[in-house]
Amino acid sequence: MAPVVFPTQKTEDIQQNKMASIKELAESGGLTSVPSEYTFASNPNDQADQHDPDHSMPTIDFSLLMSTSPDQRAKILHDLRKACEEWGFFMLINHGVPESLMKNMIDVCQGFFNLPEEEKKVYQSRNLLDPIKYGTSFNAEIDKVLLWRDFLKVISHPRFHSLPKPEGYSEVSLEFSKRIREVATELLRAISETLGLEADYIEKSMNWDQGFQMLAANYYPACPDPENAIGIPPHTDHGLLTILIQNGMGGLQVQHKGKWVNWNAIPNSLVVNLADHMQILTNDKYKSVWHRAVVNNRAPRISIAVPHGPSLETVVVAAPELVEKQGRPPAYKGLSYHDFLEYQQSAKCYMKSCLDAIRL
């Protein structure tokens, strides 16, 4: 694909568009460099390592998790445990979510971002748990540097919400959220087993039937100077686990053994990462891993992250069975999932891990 050409644009025009969507700004006709408010000063030592043989990314065959063979299941649970302990990230293959559905989900999200700005702006909101939210960057009230991304966040469980436009979004997103939730449920059962717990332990203790699920679509336009901008800075996710799909453009980087690694996902795989509440629940046995989204100057990238958490009222603490087995006290104080989400959005957690704030 040919690189995008960026013609010139006057500085005053850029300033007028400061808080416009990044898609609108990038397509306004004129960027030859990253505007100052979007300039993200990265550390040269934080460049992604692409050649280290220790960075072989784990792959889990979901179909084997469904196996009735004791030997096959024991082997895949061993692999899953290792992926959770050593990476906190893995690729999921043979997961049963149709490739056509994944593509359609990306297409309808692209369709939303292509809507006129006035139609998208009706979903702009500062309220944390509004069922549908559209915006740009992270939090305009506390952002020190604006991010090279627009987002759409739609809560899909315990109550499903949808959009009237673009055409087909409602039907596609409903089917997609159901299929992804089925995968997440089976993963949590398998993760429970890797911890030596009953398969339904996480489901029961986290009130999974009322668990929080969100479809979070991110749009990263082509950038004239990707080395000086960031899609999403280093962060960890809230919840138990996140499942992600993306279009053909890479951009996800994961921190592993102190180095940043380009996560080159297998086509049609699901990318799964453990999140903060899994780390709390397992008392630091499984970690929520830092990751980030970088941008490129070739073409837009779309990713759809689906975070899964406990019910909003659930106070998450370390599993007593694991605390006893580990022989050490809980590492974190209990906090409801809702309160954790609010804290994560506050200035106190800006560019920081919320886990540090609740560590005992």
TrEMBL record:
Pfam families: 2OG-FeII_Oxy, DIOX_N. It comes from Ziziphus jujuba (Chinese jujube). One of its GO terms (molecular function) is metal ion binding. Residues 210-310 form the Fe2OG dioxygenase domain. Residues 34-54 are annotated as: Disordered. It comes from the Eukaryota. Belongs to the iron/ascorbate-dependent oxidoreductase family. Residues 34-47 have a biased composition (Polar residues). Keywords: Dioxygenase, Iron, Metal-binding, Oxidoreductase, Vitamin C. InterPro entries: DIOX_N, IPNS-like_FE2OG_OXY, IPNS-like_sf, Oxoglu/Fe-dep_dioxygenase_dom, Plant_2OG-oxidoreductases. This is 2-oxoglutarate-dependent dioxygenase 19.
